[in-house]
Amino acid sequence: MAEMQQPQISIETELRKSYLEYSLSVIIGRAIPDARDGLKPVHRRIMFAQYELANNYNRPHKKSARVVGDVIGKYHPHGDSAVYDALVRMAQEFSMRDPLVDGQGNFGSIDGDAPAAMRYTEVRMSKLAQEFLGDLDKNTVDFRPNYDNTLQEPTVMPSKVPNLLVNGSSGIAVGMATNIPPHNLGELCDALQVLLDNPQCSVDDLMEHVKGPDFPTSGFVYAGKGLYDAYHTGRGTVKVRGRMEIEERKKGFQSIVIREIPYGLNKSSLVEKIAALVNDRKIDGITDLRDESDRKGIRVVIDLKRGTIPDIVINGLYKFTPLETSFGINMLAVVDNRPQLLNLKTALTCFVDHRREVVIRRTRYDLEKAEARAHILEGLRVAIDNIDEVVALIRASANPEEARNALMKRFEFTEIQAKAILEMRLQRLTGLQREELMAEYKDLLQKIEFYRSILENSEVLRNELRREVSEIRETFATPRRTEVLREALTDIDIEDLIPDEEVVITLSRRGYMKRTGLENYQQQKRGGKGIAALHTSDDDYVQEFLSTTNHQYLCLFTNKGRMHQLKVHQVPEGSRTAKGVHINNLLPLEDNEWVTTVLALREFAEDKYFLFVTKRGMVKRSSASLYARCRKTGLMAVGLREDDELVVVRPIREDSHIVLATADGIAIRFSCRDVRPMGRVATGVKGIALRRQDFVVAGVIMKETDQTTEIMSISANGYGKRTSVELYRLQSRGGKGIINFKVTGKTGPVVGAMPVRDNDGLILLTSANKIVRISVDEVRTKGRATMGVMLVRLDEGGHVVGFDRVDEGGQTGRYVNEELDEIMSDEAVEGGEAPAVAAPADAQPAQNDEPEDDEQQNDA
Fold first, then answer.
1. What band does 524 get if pLDDT is binned at 50, 70 and 90?
2. C-alpha pair distances (Å), 350 with each of 37, 209, 342, 354, 571
3. CA 354 – CA 140 distance, rounded (Å)
4. What are the residue numbers of the active site?
5. What secondary structure letter does DSSP report for 350?
6. Can you give the pLDDT at residue 499?
7. Bridge partners, 699 (sequence order)
8. Which of 38, 364, 544, 858 could bond to 164 as cystine, CB 3.0-4.6 Å?
9. 525, 527, 532, 535 alpha-carbon torsion, rounded to 10°
10. Which domains, from first to last, does the chain contain?
């Protein structure tokens, strides 16, 4: 006979079915708590095993191994370590808001220390846990077979405590997770009273009583939109912070003491994290760190340096350590054997509905017992009243069955009543016992009436629920530990960690940048020797030197027309003599791109303007507000043609005059009003009409009425001169300009121009990596159409590659940022100068047929 062919099964269908069954098993039977008692199966089985062992709060502790053995042997066929871990957590005061297990021994610590082995520790149920098991023997909940069908276990506990929210829960199932924070029992009881009085109340009504999570480790919780969303939708995120205090020590020293930490944070790892931040210099001002915690509470002491601002260190701890953390609330629980997302009201409603069912089932059980007992007492009362006849009837009977039948026939007793009379003791016939029977019977009648009213009248049932909630609150409610703050908590900005102190920003010609506290440049008397400044290499010098504050913006413009933005505090701090870090480590610069101008400002006002000058003679005026928002990769500050470069950027106002100087010794002066405001990416308009290979090397800004500043022009071969601004007559924008410097083969092309005064100094860098410093008053004032005097004697083939102004205090750096705050606050600017732009080594002056003089008309 041929074998019967087995039916084919689709592997896809079978896998889907099997995986769904597995997922449901994990969700219902392991990871997600029940909405009614707030317990997962393992916790419920631990409590039931202790209930069967009579391991009550008022009895001696039992070995944890005994409890774990009963749990895994009778109800929970899993590893003993998993059950013991769950038992340990139920006993930890830093894990459970209201522990359900009273432990004796080492149950671990908030530092992450492991508990002792189960053979060394002892447990018993806490007093609160007893309220989970009350009336369990009165048919209040359903029972189901255990894993091997030999015993029965409850499907849910008849808990009087809204444990889902009291102790919270967390777990990860298949495709879903739950994370419910603990709450204050007293507040939940108040909310339950409101819900019982008005089932139609809103979530907002309940939030009047439930202020927010109440973590066992205290701290702060910020009740903003995240908490509102969590209580209304079941999902939301709240910020949790630890508590820190400032303590005064001797001799003016201060300490920060951490008293409370966020829920679930390992204190030992927190201390290690703080120590690492101090070593990495991410948090400054800390001299010592020690953990002085004991059984009285947490105490982590952080000693500060003298003069350190504690609030800055505190903000740093919140920023860089888990002392501020986010708690993601996800109130997922099992309702009717299905996972469901609950809001605050539905979570409390599930508990109320459960308690209502428990009270109804308990009342029915008690009513049945009371009616059965009253039925017996009614028979005993009749028998006592006719005791002589009853005794005679019993004596006349041959056996108990005959006596029972005789009593049932004579007095119309039921079988139960007749049996109770036959089993009655003779002491019941005494007068005192008769009175007790009558009192018991009367009391039973009152209870029966009360039980029936509970089942028949919904208001009486509601009052019974209110009474239970009130009793739980009076017995077990404790003061709130976590302080709820209603103000919104925004992310800590790095500026909150740094004081807005005055600092000095330096940028060298080779691109090295640093930030130094202004106090390092202490004021000296006139005639002093000065102090050592930035250590640079032989071929480098300070290109930018500006005084600003930590919270201002740095706008860094490059030769390719792009702008990068940094906060001043983002520039790495260095000592007065430190070289600093290269600008490429701070900005994403491209090949052959360098910073030409650095401006520092606090705000980007719409009525303030930047002037852009390009190598090909284009100028543009744009509102500063267009540059307020800058991407990490920078933004286009001015549109440039392929053969053009950005020479300089200057803050400018309506009454300013602009002087453009070219390599071929031509200059033009025109009013700012000739340049209309334009968009951010605009190319601009013609500022000067260049001839052949000529190009702009400088842009000088001055006041309309300024007649005192002189313009210093320097050529590639080391010649220079200063000329009064009065000699640069005002022209229209776009003209050919007038002679500024007599360029010859001897002088070489002009490499730059800047405004100077007699008390200024001048520093020049040559191609031979030599730096020459002279005083401005050593250079004679000359006319425009002159070649000037020799400032530095160069070796054959050498040329000037850069120069800058030096003030009388010995600091280099162009004037722009010293005057910028005045310009941006409507104060007058006194002068301006060009950047120290180096001319190419092989640059030659343009061979003009005949330079224009003052009498020639421009081509505007």
1. very low
2. 9, 18, 9, 6, 57
3. 10
4. 120
5. H
6. 74
7. 660
8. 38
9. 130
10. 11-186 (3.90.199.10), 243-322 (3.30.1360.40), 351-484 (1.10.268.10), 498-824 (2.120.10.90)
Select the highest-mean-pLDDT range: 330-334, 580-584, 837-841: 330-334
- The burial class, CB within 10 Å (0-12 / 13-18 / 19+), for 295 is exposed
Mean pLDDT for all residues in the chain: 84
Strands of 738-739's sheet in order across: 696-703, 656-662, 666-671, 738-739
Rounded to whole angstroms, the Cα distance separating 279 from 286 reads 10
457, 459, 460, 466: CA torsion to nearest 10: 150
Single pTM value for the model: 0.67
* CA dist., res. 164 & res. 156, Å (int): 13
Q: Which of 198, 519, 211, 511 has its CA nearest to residue 349?
A: 198
- 160: closest CA among 472, 478, 459, 462? 472
Other C-beta atoms closer than 10 Å to the C-beta of 614 total 25
Strand, helix or coil for residue 370: helix
Burial of 760-789, coded b for 16+ CB within 10 Å and e otherwise, reads: bbbbbbbbeeebbeeebeebeebebbbbbe
Q: Is 287 helix (H, G, I), strand (E, B) or coil?
A: strand
Tokens 């740094």 locate to 498
Low-confidence winner among 14-23, 471-480, 559-568, 678-687 (lowest mean pLDDT): 14-23
Quickly list H helices, 181-266. 185-197, 203-207, 225-233
- Asked if 256 and 280 count as a contact pair (C-beta separation under 8 A), the reply is no
Chain mean position to CA 637 = 34
Q: Residues near 713 by Cβ (< 8 Å), separated by ≥ 6?
A: 661, 665, 720, 721, 722, 723, 740, 741, 750, 752, 753, 788
Per-residue pLDDT, 272: 94
Closest of 850, 857, 713, 723 to residue 782, by C-alpha: 723
Strand segments (E) across 550-679:
553-558, 562-567, 581-582, 595-601, 609-614, 618-623, 635-636, 646-652, 656-662, 666-671, 677-678
